[in-house]
Write a structure and sequence with these properties.
The chain has 232 residues and is an all-alpha fold. Helices cover 56% and strands 0% of the residues.
Length: 232
């Protein structure tokens, strides 16, 4: 028998903006209690390495990226180091992260721009970050927030996309549109940590293939709870 719950898809469909914002506040409150220490999982020593790690993380797990950068970042520390990297050597060094040819081109090109135009320093605006190859809004939000404490939006990765949809906070699949929906629902002061709390929730409870609805702290305010395939 399906467990009883107090918030259904019909409730979500009738929910107005005010009610949805109230529920969003309750969501971040509960996730904050469950994952108080949630933070970026990528390891780095400086903002340039952070940007490189973020580019490497595309279509790759943070765990694998950290395995690769444990050695990589001992050799490459500055924008100039990466900009002057030998193409073939660098491809071999980052190959385990996947899409290594494209990532190599993007990292070297981005660091050449960083070295030439920004004196090797990561800029502090979204517009400037988006001039780098391999950097889109999600990546820019991660770098800006963690490197400078600059929050211009919400980083929407696969966990955030999946969980925002399951919670009935967006109807879109496009990350930019999802980001706009979430920015309208959550206070700006919570944008930065929202991403990491949702990611932890996605890794530990609201998994893609086998969500643990019975253990979820949001199951009474989630329209998808106990209605997903393979839930436990």
């Amino acid at each position: 028998m399906k467990p009883r719950k107090s918030f259904t898809k019909s409730d979500a469909a009738r929910e107005g903006d005010r009610e949805r914002k109230k529920r969003a506040l309750e969501i971040i409150k509960r996730l904050g209690r469950r994952f108080p220490a949630a933070r970026i999982a990528l390891r780095y020593q400086n903002p340039v390495q952070l940007m490189v790690a973020v580019i490497l993380s595309a279509q790759c797990t943070d765990k694998k990226v950290n395995e690769v950068t444990a050695t990589l970042f001992k050799k490459y520390r500055t924008a100039r180091d990466f900009a002057n990297a030998d193409l073939t050597t660098f491809e071999r060094e980052i190959r385990p992260t996947g899409f290594y040819r494209m990532k190599t081109r993007n990292i070297i090109a981005a660091c050449k721009i960083l070295d030439a135009r920004f004196k090797g320093k990561i800029p502090k605006t979204m517009a400037e970050m988006l001039t780098f190859p391999g950097i889109a809004r999600k990546s820019a939000n991660i770098v800006l927030g963690n490197a400078h404490g600059v929050v211009e939006g919400i980083a929407v990765d696969t966990h955030v996309s999946r969980i925002a949809a399951r919670l009935g906070l967006t109807k879109f699949s496009d990350p930019v549109k999802i980001e706009k929906d979430l920015m309208a629902l959550f206070p700006r002061a919570r944008w930065f940590d929202l991403t990491y709390k949702i990611i932890e929730h996605g890794r530990n409870i609201c998994e893609a293939k086998k969500p643990k609805c019975s253990l979820c702290p949001l199951n009474d305010i989630c329209p998808s709870a106990f209605n997903l395939p393979n839930f436990i």
